[in-house]
Design goal:
The chain is mostly helical and 200 residues long. It has nine helices and two strands; from the N terminus they run ααααββααααα. A two-stranded antiparallel sheet has the order 1-2. Strand 1 and strand 2 form a beta hairpin. Helix 1 runs antiparallel to helix 2 and helix 8 packs across helix 9. The radius of gyration is 18 Å and the shape is elongated. It starts with a helix and ends in a 9-residue tail after the last helix. The mean pLDDT is 86.
Length: 200
Amino acid sequence: MSLTNAIALLYDPSNEWRKISEQKQSISHIFLTYLIFFAAIPPVSAFIGSTYVGWSIGNGETYKLTSESALYLSVIAYFAILSAVLVVSAFVQWMAKTYGANPTMAECVNLTAYSCSPLFLVGVLGSFPILWLDMLFSLVAIAFSVNLLYKGVPQIMGINEEKGFLFASSILTLCMVSLVGMLAITIVFWGSGIAPVFTS
């Protein structure tokens, strides 16, 4: 059911969030039937794009990574995505009492994972590394994810629209801070020698 839920969220989010709330999916269920597949889309696509197609900026030279480097970075990115979903979900559960909600960790994982569906799907564009196109569709995917989050919080958390709006705004802020943190960690890793290796 999880894959079906994820696709249905894109065209009927309000109704699908209600169904997800009623299904009471466990953490293991959402990981095994949805997250391990969807979270793999961006890393796998990036591997293909960075090794077989290559990136180019403007009319300049095309840059490709070695297969070993791309594989290593893709595996790290995959587990980073899975870990990020759990970490954000834990923070969501921690913040919930402030807004009069008392969700289980499973409900928080459901909210976080399904809200990221458009971001996972747009990751397929990593196979076609055209910078302006990827940026454009990424912005659309972010807008879809934010919309899903704002519609999903009241349904999953069982709170009214006003509290749901405030809670969703707090989660969005948390996600932006987390993104900045991940970029900082990436810079530290690159400085430590764990950096992309380009083909000659």
